[in-house]
């Protein structure tokens, strides 16, 4: 069995860039920075940053480009893919994470998608909520006790 899976959580380093393939499918590319802190040999606290190239296709590309901007937090799951090409006799490589799933990070204020909303939830974020308070609408339960014999199964 083989496994090719990447999971990262970080902040966008630039606004997502959207392009269309000849087939009409949307392609979105952006970069995510992840931070790491550790203690070096001398016990001093060190920080390092890694930058990841991310690519999303189709509906995910549309949602990402609509709701995410530079500095937004995002969780991305996907597979690693390395592209190679030759330019002026020099071989170049670029490793990308191709998005399978993603989730928005915490909301940082302003309008937009609520924290915890994921890939398809952006369009239905307000469904089932009270428009005045934003609280979810709960069904009304009967005040009397339920008799187990009345349950049809």
Task: Explain this structure.
There is one protein chain. With 153 residues, the protein is mainly beta. It is built from 1 helix and 6 strands, in the order ββββαββ. The protein has one helix at 58-67; strands at residues 6-12, 17-20, 26-39, 45-57, 73-87, 90-104. The protein has a 5-stranded mixed barrel with strand order 1-3-4-6-5. The longest helix is centred in the middle third of the chain and has 10 residues, at 58-67.
Question: What is the topology?
Answer:
Elements: E1 6-12, E2 17-20, E3 26-39, E4 45-57, H1 58-67, E5 73-87, E6 90-104
Parallel strand pairs: 4-6
Antiparallel strand pairs: 1-3, 1-5, 2-3, 3-4, 5-6
Structure summarized in a few sentences:
By secondary structure, the chain is mainly beta. It is built from one helix and six strands, in the order ββββαββ.
Report the C-alpha radius of gyration, rounded: 22 Å
SS content category? mainly beta
The CATH homologous superfamily of the domain at 1-38 and 45-105 is termed Nucleic acid-binding proteins
Strand percentage lies at 35-45%
* CATH fold-level name of the domain at 1-38 and 45-105: OB fold (Dihydrolipoamide Acetyltransferase, E2P)
CATH class wording of the domain at 1-38 and 45-105: Mainly Beta
Task: Give descriptors for this structure.
1 helix, extended, mainly beta, 5-stranded mixed β-barrel, 153 residues, OB fold (Dihydrolipoamide Acetyltransferase, E2P)
């Amino acid at each position: 069995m083989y496994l090719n899976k990447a999971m990262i959580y970080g902040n966008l380093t630039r606004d997502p860039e959207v392009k269309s393939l000849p087939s009409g499918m949307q392609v979105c590319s952006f970069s995510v920075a992840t931070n790491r802190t550790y203690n070096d040999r001398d016990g001093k606290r060190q920080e390092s940053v890694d930058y990841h190239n991310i690519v999303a296709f189709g509906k995910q590309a549309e949602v990402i480009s609509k709701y995410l901007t530079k500095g937004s937090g995002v969780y991305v799951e996907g597979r690693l893919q390395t592209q190679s090409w030759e330019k002026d006799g020099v071989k170049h490589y670029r490793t990308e994470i191709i998005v399978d799933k993603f989730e928005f990070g915490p909301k940082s204020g302003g309008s937009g998608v609520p924290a915890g909303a994921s890939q398809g939830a952006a369009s239905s974020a307000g469904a089932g909520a009270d428009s005045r308070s934003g609280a979810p609408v709960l069904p009304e339960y009967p005040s009397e006790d339920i008799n187990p014999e009345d349950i049809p199964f």
